[in-house]
Amino acid sequence: MKKFIAVVLSTFVVMSVFFVGCNSTTTQNESAKSQTPNTDSQSSTDTSDAAQEENTPKEYKIGYTCPTLNNPFFVGMKEGAELAASERGLTLTMLGGDNNVAKQVQQIEDFIAQGVDAIIVQAVDTTGIVTGIEAANEANIPVFTTAESPTGGRIECAIVFDSYESGFNGGTYIGKVLEGKGNVVELQGILGQETSREKSRGFVEALKQYPDIKLLASQPANYDRATAMSVTENMLQTYDEINAVYAANDEMALGAMQAIEAAGKLGDIFIMGNDGTEEALKAIADSKLGATNGTPGYIQGYIAIDIASRYLNGEKVPEIIKERNTIIDKSNLSQTDKILKGVSKDDWYWLEQLEN
Question: Of the candidates 14, 207, 252, 336, which lies 20 to 30 Å from 32 by C-alpha distance?
Fold first, then answer.
């Protein structure tokens, strides 16, 4: 009997050890499983993150240099560009070059060093700016231009208004106002600048339609109000009768207006400007300025950013986008917001040019 009990006890001990060992192994296996990474889940997360990163639009950086930010036209251009950049999630740096092409070239070089994704240029000098554009080309940064077209370098798209057409429209309008007879003087922009040259050429060509209109003088006033005032004062002293003044921008037209008002001849001399600035529009409303040829800087800046954004996002853009200009006088003064700042989707007339 004792022998039997001993055998039973021995068997019980062995089985206990066996079960403890099994439980220990199971616990270790479960622990190992809990510590082993779930590679399927991790792989899924990595793929999801990569897809999300790929679908997230890149926040492009754009550098924009224009001749100056001391002129209402370019202030409006900056506002339009900033709106377009904000709508498209872009980072915009816009600088004025103080009408110094060397400074603009330096600004382009700074943009390159900052690693911008695109550069927009409105040049003071279409020849002097070429070195800057070529530097951007070498850095593989796409370049877009507004207004003047540089004489060299690779441009992806030029957003331009027809300066010749602008001048021609101005000359034709003044010819009709004077009913084909009278004496006219012209205030030009900056000599040697393409826009100035083409506006003047268009204006002079238009006056040829009216053989009884005499162009007394064409003098530069550098798009500056004070300079235009001084030039106009000299013209008023030189010529006995002036019936109309044509100025290549509104700042010069307003300077001429000040000189004419000081001479007591406001109302006797018709004054026409270009651009459609707020102060010029107020002067038209007050019957001090006769008209302005609206070449909206606000819309120009907006278009430039829109086109650059489309290019950066893989869309094909044309080599040239042509802008509209509209003569504004008292007859359509109430429509100026639409003419000068219409940038809702229904106003995107330039999209028609993308399709051609």
Answer: 14
